[in-house]
Amino acid sequence: LDVLAGAATTLQSTELILLEASLFHLYEDAPDVATVVRRLDELGFVLYDVFGGDRRPLDGALAQVDLAFSRRDGVLRRDQRYGVGGAASAAR
C-alpha cells in the first residue's frame, strides 16, 4: 500500500497493476488481499485476473496469490462481452 501511495502520479497513466497479495498475515504490517482489493478499488482499479500462488507448507492452504488489476474505465474493460460474438450479460 505504501508503494501505491507513492505512485499517485504514475497510477494516473497506468492501465494494469500486477502484484502479490497475502491471504494470511504472513509479514508484519503487510495488508491482506481484502485490504489490497479495497484500496485499488478506491484508486479506480478492479480485479482483472488471478494467477500463480504459493501454498503454506503447514496445511497446503493458499497463502499468497498474484493479482492483476486493470483501470475500471480503461482499455482492458471496454468490451464486456463473454464471447467473441455474444452481447454483454444484462444480469450484471
Question: How would you briefly describe this protein structure?
Answer:
The protein is of the alpha+beta class and 92 residues long.
Structure keywords:
92 residues, alpha+beta, three-stranded antiparallel β-sheet, flat
Q: What does this protein structure show overall?
A:
- The protein is α+β, with helices and mostly antiparallel strands and 92 residues long.
- Helix content is 21%, strand content 30%.
- It contains 3 helices and 3 strands.
- It has a 3-stranded antiparallel sheet with strand order 1-3-2.
- Strand 2 and strand 3 form a beta hairpin.
- It starts with a helix and ends in a 21-residue tail after the last strand.
Major sheet attributes: 3 strands, antiparallel
Which stretches are low in confidence, meaning pLDDT under 50 for 5 or more residues running? none
Q: Tell me the total number of β-strands.
A: 3
Strand order of the largest sheet: 1-3-2
Tell me the span between the first and last alpha carbons: 30 Å
- Per DSSP, the total helix count is 3
